[in-house]
Write a sequence for this structure.
């Protein structure tokens, strides 16, 4: 039970960190960074957003109605993609500087370690 609560809290923190990283990058860092680093930052944020939306797409119906069963193939595919995306995001997040780097790396780590903890 506690693991499921920790998973839900971790998933709830990811969009907050993601919004902070987006705003910090667009307002402060985008003008300072060279174009190739901006491209890496954009890819990292888009992959993290896609990863979180996919996890939320699976988790929200299950938390609202526990009697719903998800197709096993969808869960396995999402787990495989989610972990690969998380590793990729963590690596790409080092293209950021200052606070957006920390926020993006922390959000990637939360997606890597907090989803799906409660169902393993």
């Amino acid at each position: 039970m506690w693991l499921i609560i920790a998973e839900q809290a971790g998933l709830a923190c990811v969009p907050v960190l993601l919004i902070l990283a987006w705003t910090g990058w667009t307002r402060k860092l985008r003008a300072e960074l060279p174009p190739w680093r901006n491209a890496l930052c954009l890819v990292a944020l888009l992959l993290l957003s896609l990863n979180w939306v996919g996890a939320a797409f699976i988790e929200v119906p299950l938390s609202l109605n526990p009697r719903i069963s998800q197709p096993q193939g969808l869960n396995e595919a999402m787990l495989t993609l989610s972990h690969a995306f998380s590793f990729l995001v963590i690596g790409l997040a080092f293209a950021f500087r200052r606070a957006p780097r920390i926020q993006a790396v922390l959000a990637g780590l939360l997606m890597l370690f907090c989803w799906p903890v409660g169902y393993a």
Remarks:
- The chain has a mean pLDDT of 85.
- The chain is about 80% helix and 0% strand.
- Helices lie at 2-29, 35-64, 72-92, 98-113.
